[in-house]
Write a structure and sequence with these properties.
By secondary structure, this protein is an alpha+beta fold. It contains 2 helices and 12 strands; from the N terminus they run αββββββββββββα.
């Protein structure tokens, strides 16, 4: 009888641990996104130099978004303790660091004037996470409407504070943005629950501090190369 009770207790312990692992939110790790260029026919033959993947590292409400391939690399660092964000841009051998305040219009992506968010009860699974659907409507860039999917199973406080979807309270696992005049779709393909070193959220000293005008001039030169 005692052996039977002991087995029940052990099984209950392991089952409760597994259940906690499956339902608890994650507050540290790496999300990998596939990138799709929705208007690839408008891009020059330089498209092979554009990134096909984006990663987002997160830890204790700080995030670092990175895209890079060939001649072009960029990172967007947002620390929970800082009211501004760092944009790191590398083109060939030039490396620039720009501090962007949260209320400023971003130099990386295009604003979405008249943005409207319609929340729905529809869900789908992306990268193993249950996501809710929201429909997006806005004026500009053809006025096209699209859907985004977000999850509350990844624990980042105010995760969209630096993008046009700041009112959505959840981590985006499928969404669209216009970056560098490129209409891009991002879809998460993997979420790793791994430790991220704190130094990932510190800009490298290799990057030269730059004013907004210099960053915009550099980004405009890159756009001309791609279009």
């Amino acid at each position: 009888m005692r052996l039977y009770l002991l087995i029940i207790v052990i099984l209950s312990f392991f089952l409760s641990c597994n259940n906690t692992e499956n339902t608890s939110t994650k507050n540290e790790g790496v999300i990998t996104y596939d990138i799709t260029y929705l208007e690839a026919d408008k891009i020059s033959t330089m498209i092979e130099l554009l990134p096909s993947e984006m990663t987002m590292k997160f830890k204790e409400n700080s995030t670092k978004i990175y895209m890079g391939l060939g001649i072009f690399n960029t990172a967007y660092i947002s620390k929970a303790s800082d009211d501004s964000s760092s944009i790191l841009l590398q083109i060939m051998y030039a490396k620039y660091h720009y501090k962007e305040h949260r209320n400023d219009s971003s130099i990386l992506f295009t604003d979405m004037p008249g943005l409207q968010i319609e929340y729905t009860d529809e869900t789908k699974e992306i990268a193993g996470y249950k996501c809710k659907r929201a429909n997006i409507k806005y004026d500009g860039y053809g006025g096209e409407n699209f859907s985004v999917y977000y999850t509350d199973q990844i624990n980042i406080n105010n995760p969209n504070r630096n993008n046009p979807f700041r009112d959505i309270n959840g981590v985006l696992l499928e969404f669209q943005l216009v970056l560098l005049d490129l209409n891009m779709k991002f879809t998460a393909n993997n979420v790793e629950n791994i430790q991220v070193p704190p130094e990932e959220f510190e800009p490298s000293v290799e990057f030269e501090n730059a004013e907004k005008e210099k960053m915009e001039e550099t980004l405009n030169s890159l756009k001309l190369m791609l279009m």
